[in-house]
Amino acid sequence: RLNQGYARYWECATCLTQMRAKWFNAVSNAFAFCSKSEDKQQDVIKFQQAMVRLVSWLYYAALHQLEEKRLVSQILDTDGMDPRRLQYLDECAD
C-alpha cells in the first residue's frame, strides 16, 4: 500500500508540473507575438500583466480543485482587473 500511495503521489506531482509547464509555454508564446512598437508599449504591458494574473488564477483554481481541505494560497494581485468579474469568480461554484 505504501508503494502504491508513493507512486500516486509522484504521478500527481508530475502531472501538475507538466500542466504548469504547458501553461507557461502558452503564455510565453502569447508574449512572443506582442507588438514591439513603442506607441503600443503601454497596451502590451497591460496585456502581459493581465495574462499573467489570469494564468495565476487558473493555476490556483486547478490546485483548489485538488485540495481535500481549503488552504490559503498566494496568487498575484488583482490590479487592473474588472471588479464585477472578480466578484463573479469569487461567488461562482466550480
Structure description:
With 94 residues, the protein is an all-alpha fold. Helices cover 70% and strands 0% of the residues. It has 3 helices and no strands. The two termini are 32 Å apart.
What characteristics describe this protein?
94 residues; flat; 70% helix; 3 helices; mainly alpha
Provide a quick synopsis of the model:
With 94 residues, this protein is mainly α. It is built from 3 helices and no strands.
- Overall pLDDT, averaged? 84
| Helical proportion, percent range | over 70%
Beta percentage is under 5%
Largest sheet: none
Weakly predicted, low-confidence segments = none
Compute the number of strand runs.
0
Computed structural class: mainly alpha
- Along the chain, the helix and strand elements come as HHH
The CA-CA distance between the termini, in Å, is 32 Å
> What is the number of helical segments per DSSP (H or I, 4+ residues)?
3
Give the overall shape: flat
Rg measurement, Å: 17 Å
Write the layout of secondary structure elements.
Blueprint: H1 2-32, H2 41-66, H3 83-91
Helix pairs in contact: 1-2
